[in-house]
């Protein structure tokens, strides 16, 4: 009850603080994006926590590496405990230049127990096109540990996954030339025709001309004005500061695992009556021991004694008028004594009755 009352105040507070957002926080520039890199490498220097002999590809990788250094070792004689095969992943940011450094993530793919204290050997990182964009190498930091004994084990975080801060040097950049473009496309992170239309109007007011036009419910095209030819970065910086009030769709999000309910501002409810009541059944088992009288020739037995008690709370009915808001809904549920868990069940029932004019999302 008390939590639901707090929810009512929180909803009213949030509804009263709706503000416009900067356009740069709502969109991304088409062609300006990060790229995923991946590579296969070896982590060495582990203290007996590396891959076992059953991980054949680790053994083969070490043998191949030694051969490139001119050292030939029979594969059958290689016994490894201090090395582990890993997959190395990284994100190549836009506009990054050769010689700059990026972080890499190292993940074990064998049966290694921990990468603590290991060093990643030189690993080429490739893009989807198969070309090498960065070279990774350095000490692995796992940010955790694991310890085990004969009858107990302690583990903090994941010792088979680590990072190499600034561990990769960029060798090839992804070319992006904004200044040569005559039209820039801005893609919104959420699809909404109203938000796109408001953004087009705000940009045209800023530039004093019909330079922006909507392509669909998620994209607008911005024609570069003549005064900004060759200065597209300056144009995007100025346009990005334009304030646009995003239109929020009518949506109710429910997380049944935590009992969390988030409702948008535009959620409306048709005329509906809500009845809420609880039925509880209590079963108590109190077995009794029955003993025969002395010299009676009987035996001691356990006789079950079951007591069943049913309690049903009186249901309370609340009627919501047409077009009720979320504040009125929460106050109505608060009046019938609903808990956050009850609120989830009531919202699902209202949606099933066709009275909830919003999208119901359960995560």
From TrEMBL:
Any one Gene Ontology molecular-function term assigned to this protein's record? structural molecule activity
Q: Name one Pfam family in it.
A: FlgI
Q: Which domain of life is it from?
A: Bacteria
Localization of this protein: Bacterial flagellum basal body
Question: Where are the coiled-coil regions?
Answer: none
**Transmembrane annotation, as ranges:** none
User: What is an annotated GO biological process for this record, any one?
Assistant: bacterial-type flagellum-dependent cell motility
**GO CC, any one term:** outer membrane-bounded periplasmic space
The record's principal subcellular location, in a coarse class, is other
Q: Write out the entry's keywords from A to Z.
A: Bacterial flagellum, Cell projection, Cilium, Flagellum, Signal
Cross-referenced InterPro entries: Flag_FlgI
Against PANTHER family, the record matches this protein to: FLAGELLAR P-RING PERIPLASMIC PROTEIN FLGI (PTHR30381), FLAGELLAR P-RING PROTEIN (PTHR30381:SF0)
Say which family it is in.
Belongs to the FlgI family.
Q: What does this protein do?
A: Assembles around the rod to form the L-ring and probably protects the motor/basal body from shearing forces during rotation.
Q: How does it assemble?
A: The basal body constitutes a major portion of the flagellar organelle and consists of four rings (L,P,S, and M) mounted on a central rod.
Q: What is this protein called?
A: Flagellar P-ring protein
What does the organism's lineage look like at the top? Bacteria, Pseudomonadati, Thermodesulfobacteriota, Thermodesulfobacteria, Thermodesulfobacteriales
């Amino acid at each position: 009850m008390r939590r639901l009352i707090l929810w009512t105040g929180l909803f009213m507070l949030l509804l009263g603080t709706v503000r416009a957002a900067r356009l740069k926080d709502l969109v991304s520039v088409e062609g300006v994006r990060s790229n995923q890199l991946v590579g296969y490498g070896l982590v060495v220097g582990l203290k007996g926590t590396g891959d076992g002999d059953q991980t054949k590809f680790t053994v083969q990788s070490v043998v191949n590496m030694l051969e490139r250094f001119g050292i030939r070792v029979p594969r059958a004689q290689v016994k490894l405990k201090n090395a582990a095969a890993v997959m190395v992943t990284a994100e190549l940011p836009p506009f990054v230049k050769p010689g700059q450094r990026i972080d890499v993530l190292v993940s074990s793919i064998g049966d290694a127990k921990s990468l603590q204290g290991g060093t990643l050997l030189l690993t080429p990182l490739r893009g989807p096109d198969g070309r090498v964009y960065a070279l990774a190498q350095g000490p692995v930091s796992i940010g955790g540990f694991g310890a085990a004994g004969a009858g107990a084990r302690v583990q903090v975080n994941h010792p088979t996954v680590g990072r190499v801060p600034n561990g990769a040097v960029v060798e090839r950049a992804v070319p992006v030339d904004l200044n040569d473009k005559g039209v820039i496309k801005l893609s919104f992170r959420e699809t909404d025709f109203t938000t796109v239309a408001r953004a087009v109007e705000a940009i045209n007011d800023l530039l004093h001309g019909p330079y922006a036009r909507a392509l669909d419910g998620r994209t607008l095209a911005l024609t570069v004005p003549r005064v900004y030819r060759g200065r597209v970065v300056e144009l995007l910086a100025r346009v990005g500061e334009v304030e646009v009030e995003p239109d929020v769709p009518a949506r109710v999000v429910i997380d049944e695992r935590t009992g969390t309910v988030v409702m948008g501002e535009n959620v409306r409810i048709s005329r509906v009556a809500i009845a809420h009541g609880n039925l509880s059944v209590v079963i108590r088992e109190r077995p009794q021991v029955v003993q025969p009288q002395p010299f009676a020739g009987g035996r001691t037995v356990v006789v079950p004694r079951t007591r069943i008690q049913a309690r049903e709370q009186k249901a309370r009915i609340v009627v919501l008028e047409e077009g009720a808001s979320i504040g009125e809904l929460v106050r109505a549920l608060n009046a019938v004594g609903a808990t956050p868990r009850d609120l989830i069940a009531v919202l699902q029932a209202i949606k099933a009755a066709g009275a909830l004019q919003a999208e119901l999302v359960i995560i």
